[in-house]
């Protein structure tokens, strides 16, 4: 590897030291770099002070309701599927103070927090998560109800995507059309190769700022051999998806199965604990809490993550609209896979598999959709009521 | 309060360990501020004197009336069953604090056993002991305005309840699962990532998810959440390595007598075992 490349190059090959330089360059440009790192038996997202904190040599073994770290001999940093958090932890934080109010001499004054948010650089955004960010952009950054908190954090964010070469057993991005190759929206994209040819990354820019950063990295010009090897790695990953969503019109499937007995079946397993919605990279629901101090002269309004699995989420005058777990699970799934299209013009699911992995009782969204599909296509029963 | 009168606060003890009352004394930074907003009229844990400290004798019954009564402990004696009625009569608002007052506490294990046998085994002179066969929550005796969970209660939640009372608003106390708090805190799920049995999915939030943050499974000291699927939780705990007896024991602690846990003997096969034995 050598000196920085000419700015004209729109793709290149970098090594581990190139990745280290990428973190350093982004930090030098004033970004708070967030990326994957090992903590508490999982690959979590946290601020990276250097690339040394990346999960080199760590893979994951995923199953419904189960996540285990596994050491890898190849030293790869990104050969691991989605972890317990998503980027919404940073773009759409779990707790935000929206305003403060002071009362003095009977006068009320309101104050919003004008501290500019950090400028984030996200390192390791998987193609499914890149799509998830685009979906949250549609929900939170555009339209009549754009959220200034999200906009402030999102508008300056620099996205370094990493294509998937090692999908997990719970991944189904291919069937959702979101991966394992990166779609648009990144500033830079990497494809990791860790084989007999060495540990290296094929890197491309997707924006003028991405090209500027790329030009500062030590690396070499890409050739067709590396491009070919990288594309092969990604295409092989597409063939190794652990799961698939039924390839049907999910919007129609959800609308046509509202009375399926399967909802009772899943309700008998669902703990309504809310884990699926909080790990979901597109779930965006919030609630507000007004807090006061003992004097009553100081009040604050906080916005907190909420979940459609929380009874209070549908509480209207007199009681919750969705008191049963059946109605809450159905609300979540039919919104995610069905009515999201009506509301935002796309699916709300990107196939990352987090809701499958982090459900304590291993409820699998693809299995539930398949069961609903089976029920919808059950053989004609000569007029008898379906079970 | 709408008038200029300073509201009065009373703190009561029933069958309990005093830990929840201590939580109020633990509000060191806020205690002076609190004392400016309320007149602490009855609080035997803090002071022996009833009233404003002008030499009145301390009594278990109090003088009253009180704007806000915080009640710790469960009802385990006939005298206490009478006393809580009087306290309700002299209290504008009555809030229970902690697992004992809200669910009967760890002493409610007697509800599933023979109290006479315990008494004979523990005391040299069991005839001196006058106690009821059950430990019951305050709500089994009088109407309760709000129940604050925990063993012990959380300091911030206690301040929130008192503050909400002063501002005449509903307390911001969520009744959903502890999982919400792990996620907000950024704790990786220890059941999914480590296989550790954890009651978090069916347990009432409020502690801030302390145990999982230290790699320890939640043991349910805040009692049942407002939406629990006990059957599915028991299945999962067994999947994570607990046997029937472990499951029974982990639920039968500080909130043993919670009605939400009533199906446990059936779910852990203990009903069947008892029937077998009876035959």
- The helix/strand order of chain B is EHHEEHEHHEHHHHHHHH
The CATH architecture name of the largest domain in chain B reads 3-Layer(aba) Sandwich
Coarse structural class of chain A: alpha+beta
What spatial form of chain A do the alpha-carbon principal axes imply? globular
Profile the largest sheet of chain A: 8 strands, mixed
**Strand tally of chain B:** 5
- The number of helical runs of chain B is 13
Query: Which residues of chain B form runs of ≥5 with pLDDT under 50?
Result: none
Total E-strand runs of chain A: 16
Q: Considering DSSP H and I runs of 4 or more, what fraction of the residues of chain B is helical?
A: 25-40%
- How much of the polypeptide of chain B forms β-strand, as a percent range? 5-15%
Task: Name the CATH class of the largest domain in chain B.
Answer: Alpha Beta
- Give the CA-CA distance, first to last residue of chain A: 66 Å
In round numbers, the mean pLDDT of chain B is 92
Number of helices of chain A: 13
Biggest sheet of chain A: strands side by side, in what order?
3-2-8-9-10-11-1-12
Based on the model shown, name its key terms.
heterodimer, A: 387 residues, alpha+beta, eight-stranded mixed β-sheet, four-stranded antiparallel β-sheet, 13 helices, globular, B: 279 residues, alpha/beta, Rossmann fold, 2 domains, 5 strands, 10% strand
Question: Summed up, what is this model?
Answer:
The complex is a heterodimer of chains A (387) and B (279). Chain A has 387 residues and is of the alpha+beta class.
Describe this protein's structure.
The complex is a heterodimer of chains A (387) and B (279). With 387 residues, chain A is α+β, with helices and mostly antiparallel strands. Chain A contains 13 helices and 16 strands. Chain A has helices at 16-28, 88-91, 127-141, 148-155, 173-176, 208-215, 224-238, 250-256, 262-269, 275-279, 325-344, 354-357, 365-376, and strands at residues 11-14, 32-39, 42-47, 58-63, 66-71, 95-104, 107-111, 120-125, 158-162, 188-195, 198-205, 220-221, 286-292, 298-305, 315-316, 319-320. The radius of gyration of chain A is 23 Å and the shape is globular. Chain B is an alpha/beta fold and 279 residues long. In chain B, strands 2-1-3-4-5 form a five-stranded parallel β-sheet, sandwiched between helices. In chain B, helix 3 (78-89) links the parallel strand 3 and strand 4. Chain A binds chain B through residues 39-42, 44, 65-68, 84-85, 89, 94-95, 268-275, 278-279, 289-296, 304-305, 307, 309-312, 325, 357-361, and chain B through 30, 33-34, 36-37, 159-160, 162-164, 166-167, 169, 172, 174-177, 179-180, 183-184, 186-189, 191-195, 198, 200-202, 215, 226-229, 231-233, 235-236.
């Amino acid at each position: 590897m050598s000196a920085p490349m000419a700015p004209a190059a729109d793709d290149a090959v970098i090594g581990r030291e190139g990745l280290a330089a990428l973190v350093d360059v982004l930090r030098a440009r004033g970004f708070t770099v967030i990326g994957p790192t090992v903590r508490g038996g999982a690959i979590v997202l946290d601020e990276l002070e250097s690339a040394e904190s990346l999960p080199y040599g760590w893979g994951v073994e995923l199953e419904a309701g189960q996540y285990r770290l596994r050491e890898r001999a190849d030293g790869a940093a990104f050969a691991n599927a989605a972890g317990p958090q998503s980027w919404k932890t940073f773009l759409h934080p779990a707790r935000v103070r929206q305003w403060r109010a002071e009362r003095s001499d009977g006068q009320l004054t309101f104050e919003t927090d004008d501290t500019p948010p950090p400028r984030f650089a996200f390192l390791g955004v998987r193609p499914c998560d890149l799509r998830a960010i685009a979906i949250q952009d549609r929900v939170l950054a555009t339209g009549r109800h754009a959220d200034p908190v999200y906009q402030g954090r999102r508008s300056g964010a620099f996205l370094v995507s990493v294509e998937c070469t090692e999908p997990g057993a719970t991944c189904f991005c291919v069937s959702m059309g979101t991966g394992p190759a990166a779609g648009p929206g990144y500033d830079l994209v990497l494809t990791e190769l860790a084989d007999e040819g060495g540990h290296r990354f094929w890197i491309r820019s997707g924006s003028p700022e991405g090209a500027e950063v790329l030009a500062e990295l030590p690396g070499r010009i890409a050739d067709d051999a590396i491009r070919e090897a990288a594309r092969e790695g990604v295409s092989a990953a597409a063939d190794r998806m652990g799961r698939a969503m039924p390839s049907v019109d999910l919007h129609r499937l959800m609308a046509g199965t509202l009375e399926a007995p399967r909802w009772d079946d899943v309700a008998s397993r669902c703990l309504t604990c809310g884990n699926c919605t909080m790990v979901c990279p597109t779930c965006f629901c919030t609630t507000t809490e007004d807090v006061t101090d003992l004097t009553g002269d100081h009040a604050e309004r906080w916005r907190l993550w909420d979940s459609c699995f929380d009874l209070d989420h549908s509480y209207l005058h007199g009681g919750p609209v969705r008191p049963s777990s059946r109605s809450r699970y159905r609300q979540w799934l039919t919104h995610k896979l069905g009515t999201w299209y009506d509301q935002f013009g796309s699916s709300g699911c990107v196939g990352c598999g987090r809701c499958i992995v982090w459900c304590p009782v291993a409820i699998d969204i693809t299995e539930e959709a398949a069961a609903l599909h089976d029920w919808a296509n059950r053989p004609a029963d000569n007029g008898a009521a379906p079970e | 309060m709408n008038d200029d009168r300073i509201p009065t606060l009373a703190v009561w003890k029933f069958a309990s360990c005093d830990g929840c009352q201590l939580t109020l004394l633990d509000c060191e930074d806020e205690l002076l501020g609190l004392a400016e907003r309320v007149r602490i009229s009855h609080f035997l844990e803090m002071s022996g004197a009833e009233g404003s400290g002008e030499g009145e004798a301390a009594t278990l019954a109090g003088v009253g009336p009180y704007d806000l009564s915080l009640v710790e402990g469960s009802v385990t004696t006939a005298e206490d069953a009478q006393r809580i009625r009087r306290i309700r009569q002299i209290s504008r608002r009555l809030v229970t604090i902690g697992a004992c007052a809200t669910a009967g506490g760890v002493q409610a294990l007697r509800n599933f056993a023979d109290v006479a046998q315990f008494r004979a085994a523990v005391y040299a002179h069991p005839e001196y002991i006058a106690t009821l066969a059950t430990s019951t929550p305050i709500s089994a005796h009088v109407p309760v305005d709000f129940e604050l969970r925990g063993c012990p209660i959380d300091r911030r939640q206690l301040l929130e309840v008192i503050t909400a009372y002063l501002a005449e608003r509903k307390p911001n106390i969520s009744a959903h699962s502890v999982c919400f708090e792990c996620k907000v805190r950024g704790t990786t799920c220890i059941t999914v990532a480590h296989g550790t049995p954890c009651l978090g999915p069916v347990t009432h939030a409020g502690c801030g998810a302390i145990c999982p943050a230290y790699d320890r499974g939640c043991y349910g000291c805040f009692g049942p959440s407002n939406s629990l699927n006990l059957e599915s939780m028991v299945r999962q705990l067994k999947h994570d390595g607990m046997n029937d007896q472990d499951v029974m024991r982990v639920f039968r602690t500080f909130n043993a007598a919670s009605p939400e846990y009533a199906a446990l003997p059936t779910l852990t096969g203990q009903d069947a075992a008892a029937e077998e034995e009876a035959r």
